[in-house]
């Protein structure tokens, strides 16, 4: 089964109104996709409407970096899935390791966020991955399974097969130390096998699994050549239009 690759730039807490506009303009002219791949950017919350407007009628999708489970309420500083959808977002990143680590977001809370994304018709990109210590102690598989078990507990199998998974080994994020294509493929294969057990062969074959962690123009081709890598979630290199355009334009 063919899956449409999805290349996403996570801008994290970088850019301001004017530098974001500049990057949007550069992306509009620099990114040439033949329609065989999807492209998205996830700017900081405050810049979402600006970026959405600036990318209007381009093929670049816009998404949020985080979401609260509730549709509305007294949750100062938070944003709901409905609000993201109302400013033109079509996807949202959930469970990034920086949210887990610095904001103590746990797997069950992340499960509620997945449901919120579905409620507002946003595609959730669910991030998971092991720390260096977990990898070195041989715990990678157990960690991945536990993260999936807990976050997916309240989803039906058809819902589970509609999420997008992003495998982001914590030791590869922002370190310049990317997973080798073989290492990433091993974990992606394991994730697909997990989904096969949960939603059957068809659901598992439909599932898009992105890789994130120091993806750069010079390593993207090898990663994307792997059978179970269906796209990338790019941090640092997505802040530079030429680098991001080259990553979108990966060749296998
Ligand atoms: P880097 O590409 O900067 O390593 O960041 C990866 C990431 O966290 C994307 O969500």
The share of residues in helices is 40-55%
- Write out the CATH superfamily name: Aldolase class I
- Averaged pLDDT: 96
Shape: globular
| CATH C-level | Alpha Beta
Report a brief summary of the structure.
The chain is of the alpha/beta class and 252 residues long.
Task: Write up what this structure looks like.
The chain is of the alpha/beta class. It has a single domain, classed as Alpha-Beta Barrel (TIM Barrel). Helices cover 42% and strands 15% of the residues. The protein contains eleven helices and eight strands. It has helices at residues 17-30, 48-54, 81-86, 97-102, 107-119, 132-136, 140-152, 157-160, 181-206, 220-224, 241-248; strands at 6-10, 38-42, 60-64, 91-94, 123-128, 164-167, 208-212, 231-234. It has an eight-stranded parallel beta barrel with strand order 1-2-3-4-5-6-7-8, surrounded by five helices. Strand 2, helix 2 (48-54) and strand 3 form a beta-alpha-beta unit. Helix 5 packs across helix 7 (140-152) and helix 7 runs parallel beside helix 9. The radius of gyration is 17 Å and the shape is globular. The two termini are 17 Å apart. The mean pLDDT is 96. Bound molecules: 1,3-dihydroxyacetonephosphate (13P). The site of 1,3-dihydroxyacetonephosphate (13P) has 14 residues, from strand 8.
Keywords:
binds 1,3-dihydroxyacetonephosphate; 8-stranded parallel beta barrel; 252 residues; alpha/beta; TIM Barrel
List the topology elements:
Blueprint: E1 6-10, H1 17-30, E2 38-42, H2 48-54, E3 60-64, H3 81-86, E4 91-94, H4 97-102, H5 107-119, E5 123-128, H6 132-136, H7 140-152, H8 157-160, E6 164-167, H9 181-206, E7 208-212, H10 220-224, E8 231-234, H11 241-248
Parallel strand pairs: 1-2, 1-8, 2-3, 3-4, 4-5, 5-6, 6-7, 7-8
Helix pairs in contact: 1-11, 5-7, 7-9
């Amino acid at each position: 089964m063919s899956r449409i690759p999805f290349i996403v730039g996570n801008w994290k807490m970088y850019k301001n109104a004017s530098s974001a506009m500049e990057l949007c303009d550069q992306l509009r002219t620099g990114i040439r996709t033949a329609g065989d791949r999807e492209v998205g950017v996830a700017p900081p919350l405050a810049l979402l409407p600006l970026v959405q407007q600036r990318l209007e009628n381009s093929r670049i999708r816009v998404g949020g970096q985080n979401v609260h489970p509730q549709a509305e309420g007294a949750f100062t500083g938070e944003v709901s899935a409905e609000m993201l959808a109302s400013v033109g977002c079509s996807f949202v990143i959930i469970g990034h390791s920086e949210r887990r680590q610095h904001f103590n977001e746990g797997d069950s809370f992340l499960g509620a966020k997945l449901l919120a994304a579905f409620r507002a018709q946003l595609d959730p990109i669910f991030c998971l991955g092991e720390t260096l210590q977990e990898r070195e102690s041989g715990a990678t598989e157990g960690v991945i399974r536990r993260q999936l078990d807990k976050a997916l507990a309240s989803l039906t199998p058809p819902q589970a097969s509609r999420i997008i998974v992003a495998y982001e080994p914590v030791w590869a994020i922002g370190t310049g130390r990317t997973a080798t294509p073989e290492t990433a493929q091993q974990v992606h294969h394991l994730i697909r096998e997990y989904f096969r057990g949960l939603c059957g062969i068809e659901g598992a074959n439909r599932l898009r699994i992105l890789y994130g962690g120091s993806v750069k123009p010079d390593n993207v081709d090898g990663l994307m050549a792997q059978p179970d890598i269906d796209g990338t979630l790019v941090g640092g290199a997505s802040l530079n239009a030429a680098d991001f355009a080259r990553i979108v334009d990966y060749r296998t």
